[in-house]
Amino acid sequence: MKSTEADLEGWRVRARRLEAPQKGSELQLDDAQFGAHPISEMVRLSLVSAGEHLRLAWTAILAGQVYPIAHFTTLRGALLAASQAVYILGPDEGTVRRGRGLAAVAESYKRSRQFHNDTLMYPNLTDNERQQIDAQVKWLTTRLGQTLQAGAETSLNISDAVIPYAAKLVYGRNPDLELEVNLLWRKLSGDAHALTWALAQRTIFQPTRAGEILSEGTSGGSLEEVAQPFEASFRILKRGWSLYDQRCEGS
Q: 8 and 55 in contact (C-beta within 8 Å)?
């Protein structure tokens, strides 16, 4: 993990400036499909997000803190964001990239519309506030329809499409490692949803006491356990930045 510091810092600095695809590049042509929300910016946000989550995980380790649950929810965010970028950028076929990129844009509109609809439950909204929210919901609905007309895939399936694609692209030469990434995603999701089964796999249990069917266990956090999702997320993110640069380069 120490060896990733230079790349993580470089990506942190890079995230501070806006980047636009060069004229004639593949991403510039992808963006032209739906100029209202550039696919390149959606991808860039995914890359930046993954880097932030990895830096947060590493910062905690440098501070002498290894968390038995929170480290894994943080790394789940890194794995998801990095894989989403690779899922969009990976295909050489422009129509496939655009369909995937616009699916991510559509998902953003859909979730924003859901949020704004829920804000209408506030009891003391003024008529003007309610009208503004209604207008925003209508605008989001229009944008969502436009992404579908522009060729967006109908869904962005993280568990069954995004993670498996990124795992195969980065680790496909080693089927065992490819499988490990997919299994990691399942395990990290258990942590993110506060389910016990994922933590139990990292827990040391004591023998059960007489008359009891459950035993006590302890999990204090382990660098060895953290290293695996950290490494996978980092490798996928590195491929994502490489693909981004490739697709942004003009002809």
A: yes
| CB environment 118-143: b (16+ within 10 A), e (fewer) | eeeeeeeeeeeeeeebeebbeebeeb
Distance, CA of 15 to chain centre: 16
Q: How many residues does the chain have?
A: 251
CB contact at 8 A, 39 and 102: yes
At 36-72, the pLDDT tens digits run 999 999 999 999 999 999 999 999 999 999 999 999 9
pTM over 0.85: yes
Q: Which residues lie below 8 Å from residue 98, measured CB to CB, with a gap of 6+? A: 30, 33, 34, 39, 150, 151
Is the pLDDT score of 239 beyond 70? yes
